[in-house]
Amino acid sequence: MKTFDKEQILETINMIKLHNLDIRTVTMAISLRDCIDRDVNRVCDRIRHKILNYSKNLIKYANEIEDNYSIPIVNKRIAVTPVSIIGESCDEYDYVKIAKTLDEIANEVGVDFIGGYSALVEKGCTKGDTALIESIPEALATTSKLCSSVNVASSKAGINMDAVLKVSEIIKQAAELTEETDGLGAAKFVVFCNSVNDNPFMAGAFCGYSEPECALNVGVSGPGVVMAAIQNLPKDADFSKLANTIKQTAYKITSTGELVGRELAQKLNIPFGVIDLSLAPTPAEGDSVAGIFQAMGLEHAGAHGTTAALAMLNDAVKKGGIMASSHVGGLSGAFIPVSEDAGMIEAAAKGVLTFDKLEAMTSVCSVGLDMIAIPGDTPSSTIAGIIADEMAIGMINKKTTAVRIIPAVGKTVGESVVYGGLLGEAPIMKVSSLSSANFVNRAGRIPAPLHSLNN
What we know:
Layout: H1 6-19, E1 23-30, H2 40-55, H3 58-69, E2 73-80, H4 83-87, H5 95-109, E3 113-120, H6 127-141, E4 146-154, E5 158-160, H7 161-177, H8 184-187, E6 189-193, E7 214-220, H9 223-231, H10 239-268, E8 272-279, H11 289-296, H12 306-324, E9 333-334, H13 342-350, H14 355-361, E10 369-375, H15 380-397, E11 401-408, E12 416-420, E13 424-427, H16 437-440, E14 445-446
Parallel strand pairs: 1-2, 2-3, 3-4, 4-6, 7-8, 8-9, 10-11
Antiparallel strand pairs: 1-7, 4-5, 5-14, 6-11, 12-13
């Protein structure tokens, strides 16, 4: 087992007290492949039995470790095998019943979210995939802790534009069914290119088909810690010094996350999976990725140079993390969710951070267009165009990209959606009024790029 430097751990604990460092999530990934049955009621019974068997002590042991080390564990979560696979064997599809069962289990166990109401359709849909996708709006509207995702593209398969168009309509429906909560249903749904099997972060976490029976994946955050480290540098420190400082800070954060993850996994008697070092911000003051850009010398997120700053940040975080652990996985890097980052919220509200600039930033960040509110009357074809653009960035660059976008029903630019907690609030951003309809309505797949032929 890896040994840890006690002085570094003590230093990191000091970061917790001063700069909002936390274990953002411990996520138990559970395979449901042996829960398949032709009777949906038996499927639900098997799911309940299996999840409860593995997760019954998750909250108890996580709280014990939190108390022992004085390290906040903000979220406890569960991720399961993509449900489209599990429900497909049933004689009659009733995915919403499975969704409600998962939500009931999440409430019973006491976790914050449960993910995996998902389908992987980058090359096409089975009947089960189609049924699950069509059920997503109702499933998210009738549950409180369920999260959903659909992978519609990959660097190997290209972009399934039929699925892109379908999920754009699903996003609109999910927002409309949860209008009274500012479209919260859409906030719990994400569209992926190159989704990963071991991501512990919601809304996109699921237990991949190649994952073990059960494993514990840990997501560590700490943009406030990185920002403070940069602020302590001389104002004229060069980029090499800046990058090295970020790497050293990421190393310390990762060491702490692995310590917590391995101890919790041991208590639960399950394998430790991966540590995901993603700088996931919160609306709290001093816990902002946008604040890191300002510490680097930019006036605000959105200024020219923001994409370069984000590229360096993302790369340095990954380098520091991989030196601290041999099991870095998930997404790992820097997130730029608008509603969840106080600096991003401010920049978007001022109009200095535009939709187009955010899209450019996604070419070098860990995920993509995340928690962005747009006018409620935005056509589904325009949303499909936004998704297609983001999927193309992921496909060509062989990286994970995603879209989590919220059409705010009855609202327009100048207004906001408000969720509170980690989801924060988001000013509604302007999108192009130009039509994408004729393009996105072309059937079929955008072919994979040439580099996909690398076997």
